[in-house]
Amino acid sequence: MAKTDIGPPDYKQFLPPIIRDNYGKWRYHEIVRAGVLKHVGENGDVLYTVRAGSPRLLSTDHIREICDLAETYCDGYLRFTSRHNIEFLLADERRVAPLIEELQAKNYPVGGTGHSISNMVHTQGWVHCHTPATDASGPVKAIMDELYDHFTHMDLPAHVRIALACCLNMCGAVHCSDIAILGIHRTPPRPDNSRLPNLCELPTTVASCPTGAIRADMKNKTVQVNDDKCMYCGNCYTVCPAMPIADPDNDGISIWVGGKVSNARSAPMFSKLAIPFLPNNPPRWPEVVAAVKNIVEVYAARARKHERLGEWIERVGWERFFTLTGIAFTDKHIDDFTLATETFRTTTQFKWG
User: Fold this and answer.
1) CB within 8 Å of 5: residues ≥ 6 apart
2) 293-312, pLDDT tens digit by residue?
3) Can you give the pTM of this predicted structure?
4) Which string of b and e fits 252-262 if b means at least 16 CB within 10 Å?
5) Please, are residues 246 and 129 in contact by the beta-carbon 8 Å criterion?
C-alpha cells in the first residue's frame, strides 16, 4: 500500500520487536506483583510490563524524564494506557527490579494492576474545557493521594475503576465506572442579549439543545430558555459563547456508582446516582475525597472476592448500600426523566438494610 500523509501512521511500525514478533501469538499473561505483568509467547518469548502512575497533564521536562527511563531500561519502548498510566515494556527480566527501584526513588507509584484501583481517567476541567462544572486534575490528584495504597497494593475484592467528567457531556467514562465523579451545573444558561445576535447563529443554537429547551426570539434576534426543560448540559454554550452556564455558587460534583464495561460474571452496567451534590472546594475537595474513600472502604470490607462494586450493590441491595455507606437517600435519587419509568423497580422485592 502506498504511503501517504493522510491519517495516522500504522501503529505496528512503532511496536517493540518482541511484541511485533508475537502479535496475536501470546499464550498467557500473569501478574507477577503489583504493577508488573508478564506475557509469554507461543515461542517462549517473555515480555515484562512495569506500570507506573502518571498525571494526565505532563510538562515537557516530565516527558523527557520518562523517556530517559525508557531509554535506560527498555530500549526506549513504553506506552501510555487509556487511564494515563505509563507502561515500560522490557524483554530482559534483569532490568525489572532496577527500573522499579528508580521509579520509586523518583516518586512514581508502581501498581494499578489486578485487584487494585487503577489511575483515574478524567476530562480536561478548568485548565482547558469551556463547559466544566468542576476541575478535573485537581480532584483526581486529591482523591488518588488518599487512595494511594490501593494503587500500589492488590488488596481489593476486584479491580476498581474510577472516572471523572467535569460536566455531564462526560468525555470521561463516568457512565460505566465503579465510581464516577461528575461535575454538574444546577442553573440554566443565561443568554447575553447584547452579544448573542452578533455572535451566534440562532438555528444552530436552537438545534444544540437535546431537550428542546431553547426557542428562537426572532423579533429580538436572540433566544429564550425554558428553565423547566433545561438539563444544564452546557451544549448550547459550545455553539454559542453568549450563553454562559458556569455558576461558581451553584456548580458542584455528584457521585455515581456501580458501572462497569466488563462482560465477565455479569452484564455491563451503567453507573447510578449515589450522592446528588457536593460543593467545589479547591484545592483539595475534602468532601469529595471523603465520599469516594468511604465508598471504597465499605466495599473493600464487605464485598466477595472478584465481585465488582456494582455486583456487590446488586447482591446486598441498594437500600443496604445507602445504610452501610451512610449516604442519605433523597428525592434527587428518583429519576424524573420522561422515559424513566422503564427503569423503575416494578416488584415488591426490597432488601432493606
Assistant:
1) none
2) 999 999 999 999 999 999 99
3) 0.92
4) bbbbbbbbbeb
5) no
